Amino acid sequence: MLISELSDRTQVPVATLKYYLREGLLPAGTATSRTRASYDTTHVDRVRLIRALMESGGLSLSRVRQVLETLDGPPVDRHDLLGTAQRAITPPLPERPDDEWTQTATQFVADHGWQVDDDEPLLVLLGEQMRTLASAEPELADEALLARYAGAADALAEVDFSVVPETPADALRRVAVGTVLSDPVILTLRRLAQQGLSARLSGR
Fold it and tell me: Are residues 30 and 85 in the same domain?
């Protein structure tokens, strides 16, 4: 198909597709002449993935590029694959993280029984989130309450791993893309569950 047809199939303007091509987000098509190229269904899938990551996942263009680069070269080891996928979608860390809160987060994770590397970026991120929570709403930073949240996260992780494919490339895509796109769904489900519980407790 020509780029105009690719545009029709994906509902993405030709100018945007050309931008993706220039930026290396979209692989070049097969040249059919000096000024024309042919595209196929792999290009359709790639464009739809880019749009989903940006629009539904809320990723910036630079982070979309990182995810795509990760998907194009998946590791074989399953555990390394998970780390690679998570690094691709982890938001930027603060320039000056609070070391004490990073240590607090590290200890919390260890106490919960999660085995992670000491240099795991998510520990820094969790530390900053815990610091912000403690500053704004100290009661919500209570370790017993956070432990209950961690228990809920365990259940979510079980669900996530139950649908991870066997092949490395497919598994990486499911973990990276699936996490980005399912995070907003989980957030919405949480709010709906709050409404449902509130209605039930109030006798409605």
Answer: no
Render 95-120 in DSSP notation, one character per residue.
Answer: SS--HHHHHHHHHHHHHHT----TT-
- Separation of alpha carbons 150 and 28, rounded Å: 44
pTM over 0.85, yes/no: no
Give the position of tokens 């993706």: 20
Q: Which domain covers residue 129, as residue numbers?
A: 76-201
- In order along its 204 residues, the chain shows pLDDT tens digits of 889 999 999 999 999 999 999 988 899 899 888 878 999 999 998 998 888 888 877 778 888 887 788 777 766 666 776 777 777 777 778 888 899 999 999 999 999 999 998 889 999 999 999 999 999 999 988 999 999 999 999 999 999 889 888 877 777 778 778 888 888 899 999 999 999 999 999 887
CATH code of the domain in which 37 resides: 1.10.1660.10
Q: Is 112 a domain residue?
A: yes
| Contact residues for 176 (Cβ-Cβ < 8 A; gap 6+) | 67, 70, 71, 85, 86, 88, 89
Backbone angles phi and psi of 121, in degrees to 5: -60, -30
- Kind of pairing between the strands at 37-38 and 30-31: antiparallel
Q: How far out from the chain centre does Cα 35 lie?
A: 37
